Amino acid sequence: SLHDALPIYYRAVLAALKALRSNRRGFRFRAFSDSERLAQTLTELGEIKVVPVPSLAPRLAPTAKAEARKIRFGYLGGARDEKGFALFADAINMTLCLGLAPGATFIVQLALYKQPSPTETRAAVLLRELATKFDNLRIIEGNLEPEAFCAALADLDVLVIPYNHPSYVERTSGLLADGITAGKVLIAAGDTWGSEQVQRFGGGLTFPMGDLAELCRAIIKATQNWPELASSAVQASAVWEQTNNTRRLFQILFE
Residue 173 — φ and ψ, nearest 5°? Predict the structure, then answer.
């Protein structure tokens, strides 16, 4: 059933809300989600109205135009399988070794968890080896404090969000909200909340989830169509902020 298909933590929230409502007669509460699709699903399954709210992110200072240098593609966040870390590592390997996108450079945050999977470990080893051979690959080791994260994001031209797990069909992405607010070109895995935002607002490219060849094609396409993509990303950021802003959030919370 659709209920069983939900991740266990969503089912637990539904159960808790139902119990709270039945045990405390007259108790009123409102539930919110920054995922429209998830809000709709939870409302349908839980008989509890879940209201979609905006996704907010800080605005960053603009960076130098990429026309004067190579286009910077970046991966930020935890180095996890479900986030497509290994997939992007393989895409970098293919792109660099075959010379598919000579106008590209790559910046990757390598923040492994305490017990990484074999796939994550392999990808980390691959990236460190590639970084010794190619000067257009830079690795950022470890976790980043908020200021360092914002600086790393500001340094990018293209934010790659290659999520590789079915749960991201409904889960939102703070990273994508950061990227679109900052006016970055986005490359997002298909059938995710992120790809929905790219298709709705523009400013990026999508590829089928888990498809290495298509991810490489998206990287190549971004370098070939850079002026148009960069311009559309700026426009997407402006349109995004018309509905994803603090004023709109408070209007929904208190209406």
Answer: -135, 110
